[in-house]
Amino acid sequence: MRVLVTGGAGFIGSAVIRHLIIDKGYEVLNVDKLTYAGTLSSLLPVANNPSYRFLRADICDGRAISEAFSTFRPDRVMHLAAESHVDRSITGARDFIETNVLGTFNLLECARAYWQSMKDEAKRRFRFLHVSTDEVYGSLADDQLFSEVTRYDPSSPYSASKAASDHLAKAWARTYGMPILVSNCSNNYGPYHFPEKLIPLTILNALEGRPLSIYGDGTNIRDWLFVEDHARALDLIAERGRIGETYNVGGRNERRNVDVARRICATLDELVPAFRPREELIQFVEDRPGHDLRYAIDATKLEEELGWAAEDSFESGIEKTIRWYLDNEWWWAPLRKGYDGIRLGALHTGVGQ
Questions:
Q1: What is the extent of the structural domain holding 12?
Q2: 42, 36, 50, 47: which is closest to 12 by C-alpha?
Q3: ∠141-222-162 over CA atoms, to 5°?
Q4: Residue 208 Cα distances to 56, 197, 272, angstroms
Q5: Of 10, 37, 80, 348, whose Cβ has the fewest other Cβ atoms within 10 Å?
Q6: Mean pLDDT across the chain, nearest whole number?
Q7: Model confidence over 123-152: pLDDT tens digits?
């Protein structure tokens, strides 16, 4: 099995590649532009594996992507390349439109030309998985869950760009008959997570005794999914999912943002005691514009059709994650030099540490 993975130097993409090579024995071509959030150090466990190849390329570059298809000749595409940080999209939306919308369009067109050139058996075996987010659905009421038929209602430039790319993928499936599947996931966390997102940022700032900025009153709720559970789900969807279908992937681990921060503080206090409880570092700051109140995924379709289930609860996953950051300063310390730990999601100055 030969799999072309876009965005494989990113957080989720690198977890997918490690799973495909180490656990499944597949051949993988990683196509990544290596923006600020992409780091090849996340792929050191497979870097010298003969089944791993890397191509530094922008998914908007039609010539480079076409050549990747023609030379590697993949059986599957797993499309994870994206600008993904909501905070950055608020003040710099152009990159999100170019990569997430135009890049997905270009990738779909290159994949279509390649697929149409394939022989019958290879053509029937080919799959294209477009990986997306639950944020395309907008905000939820207290008693609801996102399902695969929930109406799209994106709130941020990031989620709007991902909604647009979802629609492109589905349209290419319907118009051209391409074997495309779409997945929408809840918030991921785990090892190798770039330290701008809530969980890794809180871990490292708490470890350094810095203020822990929480937007608004901290009651925004997210459904947390351990990244290695997500990687297994994506492989399963690409392998056994029904063509043309959407599958939601969620951990069934809803937590308020402030409670996530408190759990991180309590765990760090146990593992690396400080002179005062780290929860005292929490501060509430101006809320992010368009901040959705609650996300929660109904993963019943994935669980019942394909037999997937998350192996990690939030409690087990967050402890694994914290211990990984404590043990792997070599990975995150160079990244902290280029990103100072300030939260970026406000239009005004003064929000952050």
A1: 2-194+223-255+292-313
A2: 42
A3: 90
A4: 34, 16, 11
A5: 348
A6: 94
A7: 999 999 999 999 999 998 778 999 999 999
**Contacts for 195 with CB less than 8 Å, ≥ 6 apart:** 201, 203, 204, 332, 335, 336, 339, 341
Beta carbons of 159 and 136 less than 8 angstroms apart: yes
- CATH number assigned to the domain comprising residue 117: 3.40.50.720
* The pair of three-digit structure tokens given for residue 199, joined into one six-digit string: 């969980």
Report the DSSP beta bridge partners of residue 52: 28
Collapsing DSSP to helix, strand or coil, 78 comes out as strand
> Which residues, 6+ apart, have CB-to-CB distance to 143 below 8 Å?
none
Mean local confidence (pLDDT), 146-163 = 96
Specify the number of domains making up the chain.
Answer: 1
DSSP string of 122-173, one letter each residue = HHHH-EEEEEEEGGGG----TT--B-TTPPP---SHHHHHHHHHHHHHHHHH
Query: Does 80 score more than 90 pLDDT?
Result: yes
Question: pTM of this prediction?
Answer: 0.94
How far is residue 184 from each of residues 6, 238, 265, 273, measured CA to CA in Å? Answer: 16, 13, 30, 38
Catalytic residues: 134-135, 158
Gap between the terminal Cα atoms of the chain = 47
pLDDT at 10 over 70: yes
Asked whether residue 106 is domain-assigned, the answer is yes
